[in-house]
Design brief:
With 176 residues, the chain is of the alpha+beta class. The protein is built from seven helices and seven strands; from the N terminus they run H-H-E-E-E-E-H-E-E-H-E-H-H-H.
Length: 176
C-alpha cells in the first residue's frame, strides 16, 4: 500500500469503532503510548484521569503529553491541560497531542511553548497543523497508521486497558 494511502485507510478503520467520544479519547491516550513505545520510548505512565495523560522517556528527555482526539474541524484547549504538560526541569518537554480522526488520520504534537497560545481559544485544525512539531508528528502518524492497519481485524479489542498494558510492557514497567 502506498504510504500516502495509509492515513486514509487508518481513519476509515477507526471510524468504524462504535464507542463513545469519551471512550475514544481514552483509547487515543493509550494508542499514543503504544505508538511511542513502538518508536523506542520508555513509557512511565498512562493515566486514565488527570494530567498529563502519558509520561514517557525518549531521546534523553522526559515527555509530558496531554492527548486529545477529535473528528471536529476545530479544537479547544484548557488551562488544566496546559499545566499538566508544563516542563518542570530542563530535561523535560511538554506536548499537546491531538489525534485528528478525519481522513487522513494524523497526530499533531504541539510543544508546550507553542500550546500556551491556544488556551481558552477555539482554533482550526489547520492552525494546530501549522504549530506542530512536524517530524515528531509525522513519525507518530506513520507508526499509528501502520499499527491500526496491521490490526484492522481486531481493532475493537484495542481497549484503553489492553493498549496501556502493551505500551507499559514494551516501553516501561507494567503496574505503573
Amino acid at each position: 500500500m502506498n504510504s500516502d494511502d495509509t492515513g486514509f485507510k487508518a481513519a476509515r478503520i477507526l471510524d468504524r469503532l462504535e464507542v463513545s467520544p469519551s471512550e475514544l479519547g481514552y483509547r487515543a491516550q493509550a494508542l499514543l503510548a503504544e505508538v511511542l513505545a513502538l518508536m523506542g520510548a520508555g513509557i512511565d505512565a498512562v493515566a486514565r484521569a488527570g494530567h498529563p495523560d502519558v509520561t514517557a522517556r525518549m531521546g534523553g528527555r522526559l515527555l509530558r503529553i496531554q492527548v486529545k482526539a477529535t473528528r471536529q474541524p476545530s479544537f479547544r484547549f484548557d488551562e488544566a491541560d496546559l499545566e499538566g504538560i508544563r516542563p518542570q526541569a530542563p530535561h523535560e518537554d511538554g506536548y499537546l497531542a491531538v489525534l485528528d480522526l478525519r481522513s487522513p488520520l494524523r497526530w499533531m504534537l504541539i510543544h508546550h511553548a507553542r500550546a500556551r497560545t491556544l488556551v481558552r481559544r477555539t482554533v482550526p485544525m489547520a492552525l494546530l497543523k501549522a504549530m506542530e512539531d512536524a517530524p515528531f508528528s509525522a513519525q507518530c502518524t506513520a507508526f499509528c497508521a501502520r499499527m491500526v492497519i496491521e490490526h484492522e481485524e481486531s481493532i475493537e479489542a484495542f481497549t484503553f486497558s489492553l493498549l496501556r498494558k502493551r505500551a507499559l510492557a514494551e516501553g516501561g514497567a507494567i503496574g505503573q
